[in-house]
Amino acid sequence: MAVAKKEQELLVTVSPHIRSDETVGRIMWTVSLSLLPAFVFGVYYFGPKAVYVTALCIVGSLFSEWLVQKMTGREVTLGDGSAFLTGLLLGMNMPASAPFYIPLVSSFVAVAITKQLFGGIGYNIFNPALIGRAFALITWPRAMTSWTEPTAAFVGLDAKTTATPLGLLKEGGMQKLVEVFGDKASLYTDLLLGHRAGSLGETSVIALLVGGAFLLYKRYITWHIPVSFLGTVAVLAWAFGGKGGLFTGDPLLHLLSGGLMLGAIFMATDYVTCPSTRLGQVVFGIGCGVLTILIRLKAGYPEGVMFAILLMNCFAPMIDRNLKSKVFGLKKEARK
Amino acid sequence: MEKEFLKLFELFIAASVINNFVFTRFLGLCIFFGVSKKMETAIGMTITFTAVMVVSAALSWLVFFYIMIPLEITFLKIVIFIGIVAAFVQASDTIIRKVSPGLYYKLGVYLALIATNCIIIAVPLINAGEKRTFIESLVFGLGSGLGFGLALTIMASIREKLELADVPRPFRGMPIAWVTTALIALAFTGFSGLITL
């Protein structure tokens, strides 16, 4: 990972030995850039509070990174953007109404405990931003689930609290959901544009897709995880999501709502915490999809993307172990 | 019949994954940390543990329903269950050593450890407390054993990966394993409310 920094030294690394000017820093800053459209939409809908919460997350992340690296006597690597990206992702996973201590504490959990304790960038087992959010959700369940209604303007109105589409679906079923949004067509357009309650950066599906397409174009992510993740969710939602028996569910609703797009494009594809082989990544994506639908439809929480990715993070080393790529020239018995 | 089967299946999933003993009840941690350093030992432990778990659940059920309830000595269940497990483990230790030294060489080390595990006593106690039937007790024992195995293998794969990680000095070895377990437990809270028994 730190190839670029040690440019002058003699390097003994695994193949391929192709050099390019891609660095960790450049990838991290590009991913941050590709999150920008979704963030702008979030600010548009949730107002200046969205900027405030995200800024607190970023400051908290950078400070935690600096603190731990100072304490352990390592080189301070704020410039590589990985702490910034963690903070940005964490902020985009917060409700805009979160009080100031939640972003600060959970960004410390994310960066200091989940990443730096394991040795810093490249060694963490779990996605730092998601652990930060899971920690916040369990520690402050009320504050983390009081969603404000998107007002689509910077006006001084008092924020109204409301439920997320998935929350409505869990409590009142499909009828209630359609009732709140008017009709089915406007439900889908609102979901697509992000005019709904939710974490401040997860709502605008279209902006997230633009960011994802940019990352795919730059080849910073491959299609394997997002496609297998989203595909599994769609198929399972169609098969089991309906009340009227098999194959009556609404896959589009499940694809467009919750943190699925943000999770599948930006979180599950984290290089460090997903399997490294292509086949392993497909398995990882399918596992994420199955767990997401399982939690959404059956468990206590309305949204399961975060827990699904975290659970699959636990399994990623095992997937890597069992789906090793073939070593060239070795016979079958010699592989273990 | 189908409904009964479904109930057993739910019980199995609940015991092995959703209410995983290690990650949601935090039992059996001493062995969990002790043998999860390498995948090989983790798998050996899983096999031995599950076998012992199923048999001791069965034995405890038989003793509980055919001896302890008729004699009205159910208040002694902790003492008696510990006795049953310890006796069974010791007996199988001796028998395996005589009958199959090869197997003993592979799995014998784990046997002695199991007698001191808290999951192995928790399962008969929970079975007795819930008044489960014989088949249910067996399924619960099997699920708990395999759930423990799942926890062990997850942990072993992560710890083998962590061997290469540049963990800060004070956190090397056991401390980072505890931190990892805490984070896995955090992920497992996502299952809460999935199957309520």
Which characteristics define this entry?
heterodimer, A: 336 residues, mainly alpha, two-stranded antiparallel ribbon, 14 helices, 2 strands, 1% strand, B: 197 residues, 9 helices, 78% helix, globular
Description:
The complex is a heterodimer of chains A (336) and B (197). With 336 residues, chain A is mainly α. In chain A, 59% of the residues lie in helices and 1% in strands. In chain A, 51% of the residues are buried. Chain B has a domain of 122 residues. In chain B, helix 1 runs parallel beside helix 8, helix 4 packs across helix 5 and helix 4 runs antiparallel to helix 8. Chain B is globular. Chain B starts with a helix and ends in a 9-residue tail after the last helix. Chains A and B meet through helix 5, helix 13 and helix 14 of A and helix 8 and helix 9 of B.
Ordered list of secondary-structure elements with their pairings:
The complex is a heterodimer of chains A (336) and B (197).
Chain A (H helix, E strand, L loop, with lengths): L23 H23 L1 H24 L10 H11 L8 H15 L12 H12 L1 H4 L2 E2 L12 E2 L2 H17 L2 H10 L11 H13 L6 H17 L10 H6 L3 H8 L10 H21 L6 H18 L14
Antiparallel strand pairs in A: 1-2
Helix pairs in contact in A: 1-2, 1-3, 1-9, 2-3, 2-4, 3-4, 3-5, 4-5, 5-14, 9-12, 10-12, 10-13, 13-14
Chain B lengths: L1 H17 L2 H4 L4 H7 L3 H33 L5 H23 L1 H14 L4 H12 L3 H29 L11 H15 L9
Helix pairs in contact in B: 1-8, 4-5, 4-6, 4-7, 4-8, 5-6, 5-7, 7-8
